Amino acid sequence: MYELYTHSILDYLLNIVVKELNRARGEYDVALLREWKLRWANQKLVVQGLAKLFMYLDRFYTPVRSHTRHTSSRSTFFFL
């Protein structure tokens, strides 16, 4: 499940966010900053919501094993 989470967030960022930021970059500087602010706010909401979900799943349903926790890669994908 963690791998799917990581893959889906990375896929969204590369396919949707990058296209929109490049489109805004072509218009004018203020548009790029507005688009960046909007996408960053959306990313924070998604990550916070999924962090709560995974915290609940980790606490009650996921057996302890050696997997990468999603918290280590929370916001780093946004800056790729």
What can you tell me about this protein's structure?
By secondary structure, the chain is mainly α. It has one domain (about 1-65). Helices cover about 70% and strands about 0% of the residues. It has two helices and no strands. The chain has helices at about 1-25, 30-60. The two termini are about 20 Å apart. The relative contact order is 0.17. The model has no long low-confidence stretch (mean pLDDT about 80).
In short:
72% of the residues lie in helices and 0% in strands. It has one domain. It contains two helices and no strands.
Distance between the termini: 22 Å
Number-wise, the strands total: 0
Shape: elongated
Radius of gyration, whole Å: 15 Å
Biggest beta sheet summary: none
SSE blueprint:
Elements: H1 2-27, H2 29-60
Helix pairs in contact: 1-2
Which characteristics define this entry?
80 residues
